[in-house]
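Hey,

The postdoc asked me to send both predictions to you directly instead of through the lab channel. I've kept everything plain text so nothing gets mangled by the mail client. Protein one:
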Amino acid sequence: MVATNGTEVHEDSNYDRQKELKAFADSKAGVKGLVDAGITKIPRMFIAPPKSAPDTSKTTQCSIPIIDLSGIEDDPERHEETVEKVRRAAETWGFFQIVNHGIPFSVLEEMKNGVRRFFELDVEVKKQYYARDTDTKFRYSSNFDLYTAPFANWRDTCFCIMAPDGLKPEELPHVLRDIQLEYTKEVMRLGSCLFKLLSEALGLNPNHLEGIRCAEGLAVLCHYYPKCPEPELTFGTSKHSDNNFLTVLLQDQIGGLQVLYEDQWIDVPPVPGALVVNIGDILQLITNDKFKSVEHRVLANIEGPRVSVASFFTTDMLPSSRVFGPIKELLSEENPPRYRQTTVKEFVSYIHEHGLDGTSPLHLFKL
Protein backbone atom coordinates (compact mmCIF):
# COMPACT_ATOMS: atom_id res chain seq x y z
CA MET A 1 0.00 0.00 0.00
CA VAL A 2 1.14 3.58 -0.66
CA ALA A 3 0.07 6.36 1.71
CA THR A 4 -1.17 9.74 0.43
CA ASN A 5 2.31 11.21 0.78
CA GLY A 6 3.81 8.51 -1.44
CA THR A 7 5.40 6.57 1.40
CA GLU A 8 5.23 2.80 1.25
CA VAL A 9 3.62 1.62 4.46
CA HIS A 10 2.19 -1.54 5.94
CA GLU A 11 -1.40 -2.32 5.04
CA ASP A 12 -3.56 -0.22 7.33
CA SER A 13 -7.02 0.69 6.15
CA ASN A 14 -7.62 2.63 9.35
CA TYR A 15 -4.88 5.22 8.73
CA ASP A 16 -6.35 8.68 8.15
CA ARG A 17 -3.60 11.14 7.22
CA GLN A 18 -5.85 14.20 7.32
CA LYS A 19 -7.04 13.27 10.80
CA GLU A 20 -3.43 12.91 11.98
CA LEU A 21 -2.48 16.28 10.50
CA LYS A 22 -5.48 17.99 12.09
CA ALA A 23 -4.83 16.44 15.49
CA PHE A 24 -1.23 17.63 15.34
CA ALA A 25 -2.25 21.17 14.34
CA ASP A 26 -5.03 21.30 16.93
CA SER A 27 -2.61 20.33 19.72
CA LYS A 28 -0.68 23.60 19.12
CA ALA A 29 2.21 21.86 20.85
CA GLY A 30 4.35 21.40 17.74
CA VAL A 31 7.08 18.84 17.24
CA LYS A 32 8.51 19.74 20.63
CA GLY A 33 5.23 18.57 22.16
CA LEU A 34 5.75 15.14 20.60
CA VAL A 35 9.27 14.93 21.99
CA ASP A 36 8.14 16.12 25.42
CA ALA A 37 5.53 13.35 25.36
CA GLY A 38 8.37 10.83 25.09
CA ILE A 39 7.69 9.33 21.67
CA THR A 40 10.24 6.83 20.37
CA LYS A 41 8.79 6.44 16.84
CA ILE A 42 7.94 9.40 14.65
CA PRO A 43 4.31 9.70 13.46
CA ARG A 44 3.66 8.59 9.91
CA MET A 45 2.89 12.13 8.73
CA PHE A 46 6.62 12.96 9.10
CA ILE A 47 8.00 9.98 7.17
CA ALA A 48 9.59 10.94 3.85
CA PRO A 49 8.89 8.83 0.75
CA PRO A 50 11.73 6.35 0.09
CA LYS A 51 12.95 8.32 -2.94
CA SER A 52 13.24 11.46 -0.80
CA ALA A 53 14.60 9.90 2.38
CA PRO A 54 17.93 11.24 3.70
CA ASP A 55 21.01 9.59 2.19
CA THR A 56 24.09 10.61 4.13
CA SER A 57 26.34 7.87 2.77
CA LYS A 58 27.95 10.12 0.14
CA THR A 59 30.54 12.57 1.39
CA THR A 60 32.70 15.13 -0.37
CA GLN A 61 35.58 17.40 0.59
CA CYS A 62 34.08 20.54 -1.00
CA SER A 63 33.24 23.43 1.28
CA ILE A 64 31.33 26.64 0.65
CA PRO A 65 33.35 29.87 0.53
CA ILE A 66 34.05 31.84 3.71
CA ILE A 67 34.37 35.58 3.06
CA ASP A 68 35.99 38.00 5.52
CA LEU A 69 34.28 41.41 5.44
CA SER A 70 36.84 43.19 7.62
CA GLY A 71 38.53 46.28 6.16
CA ILE A 72 36.32 46.59 3.09
CA GLU A 73 35.27 50.16 3.91
CA ASP A 74 38.78 51.53 4.41
CA ASP A 75 40.94 49.53 2.01
CA PRO A 76 39.99 49.88 -1.71
CA GLU A 77 42.12 46.88 -2.73
CA ARG A 78 40.57 44.67 -0.06
CA HIS A 79 37.12 45.93 -1.07
CA GLU A 80 37.74 44.95 -4.69
CA GLU A 81 39.00 41.50 -3.67
CA THR A 82 35.90 40.97 -1.52
CA VAL A 83 33.55 41.99 -4.35
CA GLU A 84 35.27 39.41 -6.57
CA LYS A 85 34.89 36.69 -3.92
CA VAL A 86 31.20 37.54 -3.52
CA ARG A 87 30.74 37.43 -7.30
CA ARG A 88 32.33 33.98 -7.61
CA ALA A 89 30.36 32.60 -4.68
CA ALA A 90 27.04 34.02 -5.94
CA GLU A 91 27.62 32.70 -9.47
CA THR A 92 28.80 29.20 -8.56
CA TRP A 93 27.60 28.20 -5.11
CA GLY A 94 24.72 30.56 -4.39
CA PHE A 95 25.90 30.26 -0.78
CA PHE A 96 28.75 31.67 1.29
CA GLN A 97 29.60 32.27 4.92
CA ILE A 98 30.69 35.68 6.19
CA VAL A 99 32.94 36.50 9.13
CA ASN A 100 33.87 39.89 10.64
CA HIS A 101 30.49 41.16 9.49
CA GLY A 102 30.10 43.66 12.31
CA ILE A 103 27.35 41.98 14.36
CA PRO A 104 28.77 41.39 17.86
CA PHE A 105 29.20 37.76 18.87
CA SER A 106 27.20 38.50 22.04
CA VAL A 107 24.21 39.59 19.93
CA LEU A 108 24.37 36.39 17.87
CA GLU A 109 24.50 34.23 21.00
CA GLU A 110 21.67 36.09 22.72
CA MET A 111 19.50 35.80 19.59
CA LYS A 112 19.91 32.02 19.64
CA ASN A 113 19.25 31.97 23.37
CA GLY A 114 16.10 34.04 22.87
CA VAL A 115 14.79 31.53 20.33
CA ARG A 116 15.44 28.68 22.75
CA ARG A 117 13.69 30.57 25.54
CA PHE A 118 10.59 31.06 23.39
CA PHE A 119 10.27 27.48 22.23
CA GLU A 120 10.95 26.13 25.71
CA LEU A 121 8.16 28.22 27.26
CA ASP A 122 5.31 26.33 28.88
CA VAL A 123 3.13 25.05 26.05
CA GLU A 124 0.07 26.91 27.36
CA VAL A 125 1.99 30.19 27.09
CA LYS A 126 3.22 29.39 23.58
CA LYS A 127 -0.29 28.53 22.43
CA GLN A 128 -1.26 32.20 22.79
CA TYR A 129 0.95 32.92 19.76
CA TYR A 130 -0.09 29.90 17.69
CA ALA A 131 -1.59 30.79 14.30
CA ARG A 132 -1.79 29.17 10.89
CA ASP A 133 -3.04 32.20 8.93
CA THR A 134 -0.53 34.38 7.09
CA ASP A 135 -1.92 37.72 8.18
CA THR A 136 -0.42 37.64 11.67
CA LYS A 137 2.77 39.67 12.07
CA PHE A 138 4.12 37.35 14.78
CA ARG A 139 3.05 33.74 14.83
CA TYR A 140 4.26 30.41 16.10
CA SER A 141 3.36 27.19 14.31
CA SER A 142 4.81 23.97 12.99
CA ASN A 143 5.06 23.41 9.23
CA PHE A 144 3.43 26.35 7.42
CA ASP A 145 2.74 23.86 4.61
CA LEU A 146 1.36 21.10 6.85
CA TYR A 147 -1.60 20.34 4.59
CA THR A 148 0.13 20.82 1.23
CA ALA A 149 3.65 19.35 1.53
CA PRO A 150 4.25 15.66 0.74
CA PHE A 151 5.34 15.05 4.36
CA ALA A 152 5.81 17.14 7.48
CA ASN A 153 9.21 18.40 8.64
CA TRP A 154 10.65 17.88 12.10
CA ARG A 155 10.71 21.53 13.24
CA ASP A 156 8.72 24.30 14.88
CA THR A 157 8.90 27.93 13.74
CA CYS A 158 8.03 31.41 14.86
CA PHE A 159 7.64 33.99 12.11
CA CYS A 160 7.69 37.76 12.37
CA ILE A 161 7.63 40.64 9.90
CA MET A 162 10.25 43.16 11.00
CA ALA A 163 10.45 45.64 8.07
CA PRO A 164 9.40 47.94 6.58
CA ASP A 165 6.49 48.09 9.03
CA GLY A 166 7.77 46.03 11.93
CA LEU A 167 6.02 44.88 15.04
CA LYS A 168 5.46 47.04 18.06
CA PRO A 169 7.64 45.80 20.94
CA GLU A 170 4.59 44.63 22.87
CA GLU A 171 3.59 42.36 19.95
CA LEU A 172 6.73 40.26 20.50
CA PRO A 173 6.99 37.66 23.30
CA HIS A 174 8.89 39.16 26.22
CA VAL A 175 11.51 36.36 26.18
CA LEU A 176 12.46 37.32 22.61
CA ARG A 177 11.53 40.99 22.44
CA ASP A 178 14.69 43.01 23.15
CA ILE A 179 17.10 40.78 21.27
CA GLN A 180 14.75 40.41 18.28
CA LEU A 181 14.61 44.18 17.87
CA GLU A 182 18.38 44.57 18.32
CA TYR A 183 19.25 41.69 16.00
CA THR A 184 16.89 43.03 13.31
CA LYS A 185 18.63 46.42 13.29
CA GLU A 186 21.98 44.67 12.85
CA VAL A 187 20.71 42.44 10.03
CA MET A 188 19.16 45.38 8.17
CA ARG A 189 22.51 47.20 8.35
CA LEU A 190 24.34 44.08 7.18
CA GLY A 191 21.80 43.55 4.39
CA SER A 192 22.56 47.02 3.05
CA CYS A 193 26.27 46.13 2.97
CA LEU A 194 25.62 42.81 1.22
CA PHE A 195 23.34 44.29 -1.44
CA LYS A 196 26.01 46.91 -2.21
CA LEU A 197 28.64 44.17 -2.64
CA LEU A 198 26.26 42.12 -4.80
CA SER A 199 25.45 45.18 -6.94
CA GLU A 200 29.14 45.80 -7.53
CA ALA A 201 29.64 42.10 -8.28
CA LEU A 202 27.12 42.57 -11.11
CA GLY A 203 29.07 45.56 -12.41
CA LEU A 204 26.34 47.96 -11.32
CA ASN A 205 26.23 51.06 -9.13
CA PRO A 206 26.64 49.95 -5.47
CA ASN A 207 23.16 51.26 -4.64
CA HIS A 208 21.37 49.53 -7.53
CA LEU A 209 19.77 46.60 -5.69
CA GLU A 210 18.77 48.75 -2.74
CA GLY A 211 17.42 51.32 -5.20
CA ILE A 212 14.94 48.79 -6.59
CA ARG A 213 13.96 47.94 -3.00
CA CYS A 214 15.50 44.50 -2.60
CA ALA A 215 16.42 45.44 0.99
CA GLU A 216 13.08 47.02 1.89
CA GLY A 217 11.30 44.11 3.57
CA LEU A 218 12.52 41.68 6.21
CA ALA A 219 10.81 38.57 7.55
CA VAL A 220 12.54 36.63 10.33
CA LEU A 221 11.94 32.91 10.78
CA CYS A 222 13.21 31.37 14.01
CA HIS A 223 13.45 27.59 13.71
CA TYR A 224 13.61 25.04 16.52
CA TYR A 225 14.53 21.47 15.52
CA PRO A 226 13.93 19.10 18.48
CA LYS A 227 15.94 15.90 18.73
CA CYS A 228 14.44 13.24 16.48
CA PRO A 229 14.23 9.56 17.52
CA GLU A 230 14.38 8.42 13.87
CA PRO A 231 16.35 11.08 11.93
CA GLU A 232 16.90 8.72 9.01
CA LEU A 233 13.18 8.83 8.17
CA THR A 234 12.49 12.56 7.91
CA PHE A 235 14.02 16.02 7.54
CA GLY A 236 14.34 19.11 9.65
CA THR A 237 13.61 21.04 6.45
CA SER A 238 12.95 19.44 3.07
CA LYS A 239 14.90 20.28 -0.06
CA HIS A 240 13.98 23.75 -1.34
CA SER A 241 15.32 27.06 -2.60
CA ASP A 242 14.40 30.38 -1.00
CA ASN A 243 11.66 32.44 -2.69
CA ASN A 244 13.19 35.80 -1.81
CA PHE A 245 16.02 38.18 -2.73
CA LEU A 246 18.54 37.14 -0.08
CA THR A 247 18.74 35.12 3.15
CA VAL A 248 21.04 35.74 6.11
CA LEU A 249 21.14 32.68 8.38
CA LEU A 250 22.35 32.37 11.94
CA GLN A 251 22.84 28.73 12.97
CA ASP A 252 24.02 27.10 16.16
CA GLN A 253 26.81 24.55 16.49
CA ILE A 254 24.78 21.36 15.95
CA GLY A 255 24.88 21.49 12.16
CA GLY A 256 22.69 19.71 9.62
CA LEU A 257 22.41 22.35 6.90
CA GLN A 258 23.34 21.01 3.46
CA VAL A 259 23.64 22.67 0.04
CA LEU A 260 23.23 20.94 -3.32
CA TYR A 261 26.38 21.56 -5.35
CA GLU A 262 27.18 19.70 -8.58
CA ASP A 263 24.53 17.09 -7.70
CA GLN A 264 26.05 16.36 -4.30
CA TRP A 265 24.87 17.41 -0.86
CA ILE A 266 27.57 19.46 0.85
CA ASP A 267 27.58 20.13 4.60
CA VAL A 268 27.64 23.75 5.70
CA PRO A 269 29.60 23.37 8.94
CA PRO A 270 28.88 25.89 11.70
CA VAL A 271 31.66 28.46 12.10
CA PRO A 272 31.62 30.37 15.41
CA GLY A 273 30.55 33.96 14.82
CA ALA A 274 29.82 33.40 11.13
CA LEU A 275 26.58 33.95 9.23
CA VAL A 276 25.45 32.00 6.17
CA VAL A 277 24.26 34.04 3.16
CA ASN A 278 22.39 32.62 0.20
CA ILE A 279 20.93 33.95 -3.03
CA GLY A 280 17.14 33.72 -3.37
CA ASP A 281 15.06 32.80 -6.41
CA ILE A 282 13.99 36.38 -7.13
CA LEU A 283 17.60 37.58 -7.15
CA GLN A 284 18.39 34.81 -9.65
CA LEU A 285 15.46 36.03 -11.77
CA ILE A 286 16.46 39.70 -11.79
CA THR A 287 20.13 38.86 -12.47
CA ASN A 288 18.99 36.74 -15.44
CA ASP A 289 20.60 33.59 -14.00
CA LYS A 290 23.95 35.27 -13.32
CA PHE A 291 23.53 34.61 -9.58
CA LYS A 292 22.29 31.18 -8.53
CA SER A 293 19.59 30.27 -6.05
CA VAL A 294 20.39 26.70 -5.05
CA GLU A 295 18.54 23.97 -3.25
CA HIS A 296 19.34 23.25 0.37
CA ARG A 297 17.93 21.20 3.24
CA VAL A 298 18.35 20.52 6.94
CA LEU A 299 18.81 17.01 8.27
CA ALA A 300 16.91 15.90 11.34
CA ASN A 301 19.23 15.14 14.23
CA ILE A 302 19.33 13.00 17.33
CA GLU A 303 21.36 15.54 19.33
CA GLY A 304 18.88 18.45 19.30
CA PRO A 305 17.49 20.86 19.79
CA ARG A 306 19.03 22.74 16.87
CA VAL A 307 18.26 26.46 16.59
CA SER A 308 18.56 28.73 13.56
CA VAL A 309 17.36 32.21 12.58
CA ALA A 310 16.69 32.88 8.89
CA SER A 311 16.30 36.54 7.92
CA PHE A 312 14.54 36.80 4.57
CA PHE A 313 14.89 39.97 2.51
CA THR A 314 11.54 39.90 0.74
CA THR A 315 8.55 42.12 0.07
CA ASP A 316 5.86 39.49 -0.46
CA MET A 317 4.08 40.69 2.70
CA LEU A 318 3.63 44.19 1.24
CA PRO A 319 0.61 45.24 -0.85
CA SER A 320 2.95 46.28 -3.65
CA SER A 321 2.34 46.15 -7.40
CA ARG A 322 6.03 46.73 -8.14
CA VAL A 323 7.22 44.34 -10.84
CA PHE A 324 10.61 42.70 -11.05
CA GLY A 325 12.28 41.34 -14.15
CA PRO A 326 15.81 40.87 -15.46
CA ILE A 327 17.84 44.06 -14.83
CA LYS A 328 18.08 45.86 -18.17
CA GLU A 329 21.73 46.88 -17.59
CA LEU A 330 22.66 43.18 -17.59
CA LEU A 331 20.90 42.38 -20.86
CA SER A 332 22.25 42.39 -24.42
CA GLU A 333 21.71 40.64 -27.74
CA GLU A 334 23.93 37.85 -26.45
CA ASN A 335 22.14 37.81 -23.09
CA PRO A 336 18.41 38.35 -23.73
CA PRO A 337 15.92 38.21 -20.84
CA ARG A 338 15.19 34.68 -19.68
CA TYR A 339 12.26 35.53 -17.41
CA ARG A 340 9.08 37.54 -17.61
CA GLN A 341 8.32 40.27 -15.11
CA THR A 342 6.42 39.42 -11.94
CA THR A 343 5.46 40.84 -8.58
CA VAL A 344 7.07 39.29 -5.52
CA LYS A 345 3.62 38.32 -4.21
CA GLU A 346 2.81 36.42 -7.41
CA PHE A 347 6.16 34.65 -7.32
CA VAL A 348 5.85 33.59 -3.69
CA SER A 349 2.24 32.41 -4.06
CA TYR A 350 3.58 29.13 -5.49
CA ILE A 351 5.13 28.04 -2.22
CA HIS A 352 1.98 28.92 -0.27
CA GLU A 353 -0.02 26.69 -2.62
CA HIS A 354 2.43 23.78 -2.90
CA GLY A 355 4.59 23.90 0.22
CA LEU A 356 8.20 22.72 0.28
CA ASP A 357 7.81 20.22 -2.53
CA GLY A 358 11.38 20.57 -3.80
CA THR A 359 10.36 22.62 -6.83
CA SER A 360 11.36 26.24 -7.38
CA PRO A 361 8.76 28.49 -9.07
CA LEU A 362 11.47 29.91 -11.37
CA HIS A 363 10.50 27.64 -14.25
CA LEU A 364 7.00 29.13 -14.26
CA PHE A 365 8.38 32.55 -15.16
CA LYS A 366 10.77 31.55 -17.94
CA LEU A 367 10.28 33.07 -21.38
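Protein two:
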Amino acid sequence: MSDQSLKKRRILLVDDEPELRRMVAAMLEAEGFSHVAQAANVQEALAAYRQTKPELALLDVMLPDGDGFTLCQYLRAFEPDTPLPVIFLTAKDETDDRLAGLRCGADDYVTKPFSPQELILRMQAVLRRCYPAEPETVYLENATLDLANADVLRRDTGEHLTLTVKERAILDTLARNANRIVTTDALCEAAWGDSFGYAQSLMTHVRRIREKIEKDPSQPQSLVTAKGLGYRLNVLKDR
Protein backbone atom coordinates (compact mmCIF):
# COMPACT_ATOMS: atom_id res chain seq x y z
CA MET A 1 0.00 0.00 0.00
CA SER A 2 1.46 3.38 -0.97
CA ASP A 3 1.94 6.19 1.53
CA GLN A 4 -0.61 8.18 -0.47
CA SER A 5 -3.21 5.45 0.05
CA LEU A 6 -2.41 5.32 3.75
CA LYS A 7 -3.02 9.05 4.08
CA LYS A 8 -6.57 8.70 2.76
CA ARG A 9 -7.47 6.77 5.91
CA ARG A 10 -9.76 8.51 8.40
CA ILE A 11 -8.10 9.26 11.75
CA LEU A 12 -9.72 9.89 15.14
CA LEU A 13 -7.55 11.89 17.58
CA VAL A 14 -8.71 11.89 21.23
CA ASP A 15 -6.86 13.96 23.84
CA ASP A 16 -8.04 16.40 26.50
CA GLU A 17 -5.14 18.82 25.91
CA PRO A 18 -6.28 21.34 23.25
CA GLU A 19 -2.74 22.44 22.42
CA LEU A 20 -1.54 18.88 21.88
CA ARG A 21 -4.59 18.10 19.72
CA ARG A 22 -3.93 21.14 17.56
CA MET A 23 -0.25 20.25 17.25
CA VAL A 24 -0.86 16.60 16.32
CA ALA A 25 -3.73 17.45 13.94
CA ALA A 26 -1.62 20.10 12.19
CA MET A 27 1.27 17.66 11.93
CA LEU A 28 -0.93 14.95 10.41
CA GLU A 29 -2.52 17.36 7.96
CA ALA A 30 0.94 18.62 6.95
CA GLU A 31 1.90 15.00 6.27
CA GLY A 32 -1.11 14.61 3.98
CA PHE A 33 -3.64 12.97 6.32
CA SER A 34 -6.70 14.86 5.14
CA HIS A 35 -9.35 13.28 7.38
CA VAL A 36 -8.57 13.95 11.05
CA ALA A 37 -11.48 14.14 13.53
CA GLN A 38 -10.77 15.48 17.02
CA ALA A 39 -12.35 14.81 20.43
CA ALA A 40 -11.51 15.93 23.97
CA ASN A 41 -13.26 13.20 25.95
CA VAL A 42 -15.06 9.87 25.75
CA GLN A 43 -18.47 11.28 24.82
CA GLU A 44 -17.06 13.46 22.05
CA ALA A 45 -15.04 10.50 20.78
CA LEU A 46 -18.12 8.27 20.55
CA ALA A 47 -20.02 10.98 18.66
CA ALA A 48 -17.05 11.54 16.32
CA TYR A 49 -16.80 7.81 15.67
CA ARG A 50 -20.45 7.57 14.65
CA GLN A 51 -20.08 10.57 12.35
CA THR A 52 -16.74 9.81 10.67
CA LYS A 53 -16.23 6.02 10.98
CA PRO A 54 -12.45 6.34 11.53
CA GLU A 55 -9.97 3.72 10.34
CA LEU A 56 -7.35 4.42 13.03
CA ALA A 57 -7.72 5.96 16.51
CA LEU A 58 -5.05 7.83 18.48
CA LEU A 59 -6.25 7.71 22.10
CA ASP A 60 -4.94 9.45 25.19
CA VAL A 61 -5.03 7.17 28.25
CA MET A 62 -6.23 9.77 30.77
CA LEU A 63 -9.48 11.49 29.81
CA PRO A 64 -11.76 13.72 31.93
CA ASP A 65 -14.79 11.41 31.71
CA GLY A 66 -13.07 8.04 31.55
CA ASP A 67 -9.92 6.47 30.17
CA GLY A 68 -8.58 5.44 26.80
CA PHE A 69 -8.66 1.73 27.59
CA THR A 70 -12.40 1.75 28.23
CA LEU A 71 -12.94 4.01 25.22
CA CYS A 72 -11.02 1.51 23.09
CA GLN A 73 -13.43 -1.23 24.14
CA TYR A 74 -16.44 1.00 23.42
CA LEU A 75 -15.19 1.84 19.93
CA ARG A 76 -14.38 -1.73 19.05
CA ALA A 77 -17.80 -2.89 20.21
CA PHE A 78 -19.35 -1.00 17.29
CA GLU A 79 -17.74 -3.37 14.76
CA PRO A 80 -16.52 -6.50 16.55
CA ASP A 81 -15.80 -8.29 13.25
CA THR A 82 -13.38 -5.56 12.10
CA PRO A 83 -11.68 -4.13 15.21
CA LEU A 84 -10.59 -0.51 14.94
CA PRO A 85 -6.77 -0.15 15.02
CA VAL A 86 -5.71 1.86 18.10
CA ILE A 87 -2.50 3.62 19.09
CA PHE A 88 -2.36 4.96 22.65
CA LEU A 89 -0.79 8.35 23.36
CA THR A 90 0.17 8.91 26.99
CA ALA A 91 2.56 10.80 29.24
CA LYS A 92 3.06 7.65 31.27
CA ASP A 93 5.65 5.00 30.52
CA GLU A 94 4.64 2.42 33.06
CA THR A 95 4.43 -1.33 32.66
CA ASP A 96 0.88 -1.44 34.06
CA ASP A 97 -0.35 0.96 31.39
CA ARG A 98 1.34 -0.99 28.63
CA LEU A 99 -0.17 -4.23 29.89
CA ALA A 100 -3.61 -2.63 30.11
CA GLY A 101 -3.22 -1.44 26.53
CA LEU A 102 -2.23 -4.89 25.35
CA ARG A 103 -5.16 -6.47 27.19
CA CYS A 104 -7.65 -4.29 25.34
CA GLY A 105 -5.94 -5.03 22.02
CA ALA A 106 -3.85 -1.92 21.39
CA ASP A 107 -1.89 -2.00 18.15
CA ASP A 108 0.84 0.31 19.45
CA TYR A 109 1.73 2.64 22.32
CA VAL A 110 3.54 5.99 22.01
CA THR A 111 4.82 7.81 25.06
CA LYS A 112 4.68 11.62 25.27
CA PRO A 113 6.64 13.57 24.36
CA PHE A 114 7.09 11.94 20.97
CA SER A 115 8.65 13.14 17.75
CA PRO A 116 6.32 13.79 14.81
CA GLN A 117 8.30 11.37 12.65
CA GLU A 118 8.01 8.60 15.24
CA LEU A 119 4.23 8.94 15.37
CA ILE A 120 3.92 9.01 11.57
CA LEU A 121 6.08 5.90 11.17
CA ARG A 122 4.12 4.01 13.83
CA MET A 123 0.82 5.02 12.22
CA GLN A 124 2.01 3.88 8.81
CA ALA A 125 3.14 0.54 10.22
CA VAL A 126 -0.23 -0.08 11.89
CA LEU A 127 -2.19 1.00 8.80
CA ARG A 128 -0.15 -1.27 6.53
CA ARG A 129 -0.65 -4.19 8.88
CA CYS A 130 -4.39 -3.64 9.36
CA TYR A 131 -5.26 -2.59 5.81
CA PRO A 132 -3.34 -4.77 3.34
CA ALA A 133 -2.90 -3.52 -0.19
CA GLU A 134 -6.10 -3.74 -2.17
CA PRO A 135 -6.12 -6.76 -4.49
CA GLU A 136 -6.52 -5.51 -8.05
CA THR A 137 -6.61 -8.77 -10.03
CA VAL A 138 -8.40 -11.74 -8.50
CA TYR A 139 -8.51 -15.17 -10.16
CA LEU A 140 -11.61 -17.32 -9.69
CA GLU A 141 -12.65 -20.67 -11.11
CA ASN A 142 -14.55 -19.17 -14.03
CA ALA A 143 -13.64 -15.49 -13.97
CA THR A 144 -10.88 -12.95 -13.52
CA LEU A 145 -11.79 -9.85 -11.52
CA ASP A 146 -10.15 -6.51 -12.23
CA LEU A 147 -11.32 -4.69 -9.12
CA ALA A 148 -9.50 -1.47 -9.97
CA ASN A 149 -11.65 -1.13 -13.11
CA ALA A 150 -14.75 -2.97 -11.80
CA ASP A 151 -14.45 -5.49 -14.63
CA VAL A 152 -15.22 -9.22 -14.81
CA LEU A 153 -13.72 -11.39 -17.55
CA ARG A 154 -15.64 -14.66 -17.87
CA ARG A 155 -13.44 -17.50 -19.09
CA ASP A 156 -16.31 -19.66 -20.36
CA THR A 157 -17.66 -17.01 -22.72
CA GLY A 158 -14.78 -14.52 -23.01
CA GLU A 159 -17.10 -11.59 -22.33
CA HIS A 160 -16.38 -8.61 -20.11
CA LEU A 161 -19.01 -7.55 -17.56
CA THR A 162 -19.05 -4.42 -15.42
CA LEU A 163 -19.52 -4.50 -11.65
CA THR A 164 -21.83 -2.01 -9.98
CA VAL A 165 -20.53 0.10 -7.09
CA LYS A 166 -22.16 -2.17 -4.51
CA GLU A 167 -21.01 -5.35 -6.25
CA ARG A 168 -17.44 -4.06 -6.33
CA ALA A 169 -17.55 -3.12 -2.62
CA ILE A 170 -18.81 -6.59 -1.72
CA LEU A 171 -16.22 -8.37 -3.88
CA ASP A 172 -13.43 -6.11 -2.67
CA THR A 173 -14.21 -7.00 0.96
CA LEU A 174 -14.41 -10.69 0.12
CA ALA A 175 -11.14 -10.56 -1.86
CA ARG A 176 -9.34 -8.86 1.04
CA ASN A 177 -10.38 -11.88 3.09
CA ALA A 178 -9.85 -14.45 0.35
CA ASN A 179 -10.81 -18.04 1.20
CA ARG A 180 -12.14 -16.96 4.60
CA ILE A 181 -15.70 -16.42 5.78
CA VAL A 182 -16.83 -12.80 5.87
CA THR A 183 -19.90 -12.13 7.98
CA THR A 184 -23.12 -10.74 6.58
CA ASP A 185 -22.80 -7.70 8.86
CA ALA A 186 -19.28 -6.92 7.59
CA LEU A 187 -20.39 -7.12 3.96
CA CYS A 188 -23.43 -4.91 4.59
CA GLU A 189 -21.20 -2.39 6.35
CA ALA A 190 -18.80 -2.38 3.39
CA ALA A 191 -21.54 -1.85 0.81
CA TRP A 192 -24.04 0.37 2.64
CA GLY A 193 -22.13 1.77 5.62
CA ASP A 194 -24.54 0.05 8.01
CA SER A 195 -25.13 -3.54 9.04
CA PHE A 196 -28.79 -3.15 10.06
CA GLY A 197 -31.59 -3.93 7.62
CA TYR A 198 -29.55 -4.76 4.50
CA ALA A 199 -29.29 -8.56 4.71
CA GLN A 200 -31.97 -9.08 2.06
CA SER A 201 -30.36 -6.54 -0.26
CA LEU A 202 -27.04 -8.31 0.22
CA MET A 203 -28.59 -11.61 -0.87
CA THR A 204 -29.90 -9.93 -4.01
CA HIS A 205 -26.48 -8.49 -4.84
CA VAL A 206 -24.77 -11.83 -4.18
CA ARG A 207 -27.15 -13.49 -6.63
CA ARG A 208 -26.32 -10.89 -9.30
CA ILE A 209 -22.59 -11.27 -8.66
CA ARG A 210 -22.89 -15.05 -9.09
CA GLU A 211 -24.61 -14.49 -12.42
CA LYS A 212 -21.52 -12.58 -13.53
CA ILE A 213 -18.74 -14.78 -12.13
CA GLU A 214 -20.09 -18.34 -11.90
CA LYS A 215 -20.44 -20.85 -14.73
CA ASP A 216 -23.57 -22.14 -12.98
CA PRO A 217 -24.93 -19.53 -10.52
CA SER A 218 -27.20 -22.13 -8.90
CA GLN A 219 -24.14 -24.24 -8.05
CA PRO A 220 -21.58 -21.58 -7.10
CA GLN A 221 -17.93 -22.60 -6.92
CA SER A 222 -16.36 -19.22 -6.14
CA LEU A 223 -18.81 -17.17 -4.08
CA VAL A 224 -20.20 -19.69 -1.61
CA THR A 225 -22.56 -19.34 1.33
CA ALA A 226 -21.43 -20.10 4.87
CA LYS A 227 -24.82 -20.92 6.32
CA GLY A 228 -25.75 -18.71 9.27
CA LEU A 229 -22.51 -16.74 9.03
CA GLY A 230 -21.94 -15.02 5.70
CA TYR A 231 -20.01 -15.74 2.49
CA ARG A 232 -16.59 -16.89 1.31
CA LEU A 233 -14.81 -16.08 -1.95
CA ASN A 234 -12.68 -19.01 -3.13
CA VAL A 235 -9.70 -17.38 -4.83
CA LEU A 236 -7.03 -19.13 -6.91
CA LYS A 237 -3.36 -18.12 -6.63
CA ASP A 238 -3.09 -17.64 -10.39
CA ARG A 239 -4.29 -19.01 -13.73
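Summary for protein two, as requested: The two ends are 24 Å apart (CA to CA).

Thanks,
C.
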